[in-house]
Amino acid sequence: TVLLMCVGQGFADVPLQSGDEVQGSWKLEYTKKSASASDTIKREDTWAFNAGKVTITHIPRDGTYYDQSPVNYEVEGGKLKISLLGRPDKFDVFSLVEKDDKTMTLKGKFGDIYHFVKK
Question: Distance between CA atoms of 63 and 103, rounded to whole angstroms?
Answer without folding.
Answer: 28
